[in-house]
Amino acid sequence: MKKKFISCSILLMVVSVFLFGYSRDFYITKKPTQIIENTSMPRDTNTKGDLIKGGSTLEQAMDYYLWQIEPSMGQRGEFYTARYRILAAEETPENVIVRAWVVSKWIDSRGNTASEGSGLYEINFKIENNLYIYESMRNIKIPEVPYVPQDVSDIVSNDGETIYAELMAEIEKDIQNYLGYPERPLKLPQSRINTGFLS
């Protein structure tokens, strides 16, 4: 009788420890960060079979930037989405310089903004073996950079608000899908245009 009691007690302690560990893991496990990825982004490999930081087309290289580089620039939340519009690209046999309007946003699980970015970016890719490989990026403030081509400056001056509104509408759709809400009217704060990352 005493042996049965001891063995039952030991078994009960083992089960209790197991359940405590399981429940603790269950409650402290965070929901993984979700990033909406563009399905047009199959990762290319170099001649050694390594994944490259870019793509075999300019679109794939821009997708690499948007989903691999841009998310690290703001305070992370639970969900990230972004969009871009290429305004101009200068390509030589060695590299390509892309000037694009980029809008991105991190939110928490309730839909509150963790960080967001919007602006004209200059993104540089080198070209190797017909692959576009990401090198660098910088945010361009139009009045501060006199060498920005006139056609790009004109696009931003004349159509900047429209481009921003269209890109933000796409981001808002992603966010509403993530939160499970129906679409709601989008209010666009004018102060977010060409401001870089805000957190």
In words, what does this structure look like?
The chain is α+β, with helices and mostly antiparallel strands. The chain has two domains: about 1-30; about 30-199, no CATH class. Helices cover about 35% and strands about 30% of the residues. The protein has three helices and seven strands, in the order αββαββββαβ. Strands 1, 2, 3, 4, 5, 6 and 7 form a seven-stranded mixed sheet that branches. A hairpin with a 3-residue loop joins β3 and β4. The longest helix has 30 residues, at about 150-180. The protein is globular, with a radius of gyration of 24 Å. The N and C termini lie far apart (about 65 Å).
Which runs of at least 5 residues are low in confidence (pLDDT < 50)? 17-42, 186-199
Number of domains: 2
Termini separation comes to: 66 Å
**Helicity level:** 25-40%
Could you give a short account of the major beta sheet? Answer: 7 strands, mixed
Overall body shape? globular
Assembly category: single chain
Please count the helical segments. Answer: 3
Order of helices and strands: HEEHEEEEHE
Mean pLDDT across residues: 75
List how many beta strands DSSP finds. Answer: 7
Overall structural class, as computed from helix and strand content, comes to alpha+beta
Radius of gyration: 24 Å
Relative strand content: 25-35%
Task: Summarize, please.
Helix content is 35%, strand content 30%. The chain is of the alpha+beta class.
Distinctive features:
7-stranded mixed sheet, 3 helices
Architecture blueprint of SSEs:
Elements: H1 2-28, E1 34-35, E2 54-55, H2 58-69, E3 79-91, E4 95-107, E5 113-128, E6 131-140, H3 150-179, E7 196-198
Parallel strand pairs: 1-3
Antiparallel strand pairs: 2-6, 3-4, 4-5, 5-6, 5-7
